[in-house]
Amino acid sequence: xxxLTAKRQVTIPQSICNKLGLEPGDFIQVFERDGxxxxxxxxxxxxxxxxxxxxxxxxxxxxxxVKSALKSKAANKFRDKT
Length: 82
Description:
By secondary structure, the protein is α+β, with helices and mostly antiparallel strands. The chain has helices at 14-20, 63-81, and strands at 27-33, 36-42. Strands 1-2 form a two-stranded antiparallel ribbon.
């Protein structure tokens, strides 16, 4: 069992890091589904094609759009494995 700190941090056990291939500096997505928190490793390859950096309308891509794309990709990656 792991205790959540005041900063909402938790240590991920080494065995889980090894299974997921997590290394210091890696990006992860944490999301909730049906009352369960899920942790998914996210790499830049996972985002390929998710966001078009140059769009014909010249619209600026927001941080929220990037976060939304990350969350969507992580959720889809999880669904593909179940």
